[in-house]
Amino acid sequence: MNWKEESEKYKDAYLEDLKALIAIDSERDDEHGSEEFPLGKGPAMALKKYLEFGQRDGFKVKNLDNIVGYIEYGEGDQTLAILAHADVMPAGEGWHTDPFSMTIKDGKVYGRGASDDKGPGLAAYYGLKMLKDNNIKPNCKIRFIIGTDEESEWTGMKHYFDVEPAPDFGFSPDAEFPLINGEKGNTSFTIKFDGIKIDDSKPSLTKFESGLRENMVPRDAFATLTGISDADKIIADFDKFISNMPVEGDIASKNGNLDIHVVGKSAHGMEPKNGINGGTYLANFISNYQLDKPSSQFIKFISEYLHDDSRAHKLGVNYVDDIMGELTMNVGIVKFDAESGGFINTNFRYPKGVSVDEINHNLQLCAEKFDGSVENISNMNPHYVDPSDPIVDKLMSVYRDQTGRTDSNPEVVGGGTYGRMMPRGVAFGALFPWTEDTMHQADEFQPVDDLILAMSIYGQSIYKLSCE
Ligand SMILES: [Zn+2]
Q1: What is the Å distance from ligand 1's center to 355 Cα?
Q2: DSSP readout, 139-162?
């Protein structure tokens, strides 16, 4: 079968279905969660829409408690799984089109979910539909599984793995091409510090605020110092600091208080080197001054162990694996309030060869020196599928054939995809290397040609995995 020609025939039907999916605002909505719709109505409606397509096209479908569901084809001892998601990130500001009304402009599909993950997920579904419409009988069971909480806690997909038998192998069309066969471990820690009794006569830190999420490099950082007697000197030092360091900022003094603002550069936390951490730079600046003990413990810990050290050398957990690369650390949230105390949220992406206990232990030792306490708040172990596994081999060969990119190779990333839910699971598409990544952004788009090519790649891939 000529998969490219075949998928062209489905273009109009595909775009019509995609329009219906994008029209549903399927952001997780806890505020309106109910027993019937635990994640809110939107994610469940998008799931139902997928299942309606499946039913319409003659597949067996099942909805598991409105948080996950599947579309099934074929029979056999083994199960091939395709893991997609129907939920979306909040639309946010800055769109030039209605995010929930699919718009095609200059050959591109605009709308929330166009590239993450309604466009790619539906392309994979159409890949499966092409098999069925052409009466191709697979020699295993194929399940297209739709999660509804990928952007937060994977509630739906985890539920599937709790109540259904685990699939034997598969892929998730929820990342990029060519293929991701390795994902670093991902763990987060909170380091807590006690508060202080404010004594206006002594220099102390009354407020420190930086960062929104543990997996983002914070751009802005704000701090207030009180009880300052040498404000003029600090202001002069700050101007020098700004001119010597890769940050900007401003400082203002008001009745013995100093308000300091540092501006770095935000970036995704999986590669902190792409950003400039406003928070740790500000702590580093403040560490030059004598403050009361609790303030200075908090500031010194950041300055000595976390600042400008994305590979965590100072904590002693730096590590490089030949295949999976370097351990990275992001200092995502830094907050201090004189009364309630302070906390720092750090996120580590680590290759095989490092354990979360090791990171925990070293962090503990360093934090104790400054009376901080450490808590591990989440962890996912590293995931790696050998490139010689047929799941990698077959998918790569289809990708190379259909794109002509014969020199492309599987990749290891710091992010987490549904692929890691199966020992033989990978992420496969649908963002092509030649297309801009607009996932989670305003004006999210995916070129129509990319989506149809993805459909063709998925069709042939499912065929190779289930029939050969
Ligand atoms: Zn996604």
Answers
A1: 27
A2: SSEEEEEEES-TTTT-HHHHHHHH
What is the CATH topology of the domain spanning 186-380? Alpha-Beta Plaits (3.30.70)
The three-state secondary structure class of 43 is helix
Q: How far is the CA of 299 from the centre of ligand 1 (A)?
A: 36
- The DSSP result for 365-406, as a single string, is HHHHTTT-EEEEEEEE--EE--TTSHHHHHHHHHHHHHH--T
| Chain region(s) in the chain for CATH 3.40.630.10 | 3-184+383-467
Q: Catalytic site residue 87?
A: yes
CA of 87 to the centre of ligand 1 (A): 8
> Which class would CATH give 3-184+383-467?
alpha beta
For CATH 3.30.70.360, list the domain ranges present in the chain. Answer: 186-380
Kindly give the distance from the C-alpha atom of residue 254 to the centroid of ligand 1, in angstroms, as a whole number. Answer: 47
Q: Which of 17, 57, 116, 150 is catalytic?
A: 150
The rounded distance, in Å, linking the Cα atoms of 384 and 233 is 53
- In the reported structure, the alpha carbon of residue 12 is separated from the centroid of ligand 1 by a whole-number distance in angstroms of 24
Distance of CA 85 to the CA centre of its chain: 14
**Ion ligand 1 — residues with CB < 5 Å:** 116-117, 174
Distance 113 CA to ligand 1 centre (A): 8
Peptide bond connecting 178 to the previous residue in cis, omega within 30 degrees of 0: yes
- Per-position pLDDT tens, the chain of length 468: 999 999 999 999 999 999 999 999 999 999 999 999 999 999 999 999 999 999 999 999 999 999 999 999 999 999 999 999 999 988 888 899 999 999 999 999 999 999 999 999 999 999 999 999 999 999 999 999 999 999 888 999 999 999 999 999 999 999 999 999 999 999 999 999 988 766 667 899 999 999 988 888 999 999 999 998 889 999 999 999 999 999 999 999 988 899 999 999 988 888 899 999 999 999 999 999 999 888 999 999 999 999 999 999 999 999 999 989 999 999 999 999 988 999 999 999 999 999 999 999 999 999 999 999 999 999 999 999 999 999 999 999 999 999 999 999 999 887 678 999 999 999 999 999 999 999 888 899 999 999 999 999 999 999 999 998
Nearest Cα residue to 282 out of 230, 373, 211, 364: 211
- Tell me if residue 151 is catalytic: no
Residues 6+ apart with CB under 8 A from 447: 107, 108, 109, 435
Indicate which residue of 17, 27, 57, 87 is catalytic.
87
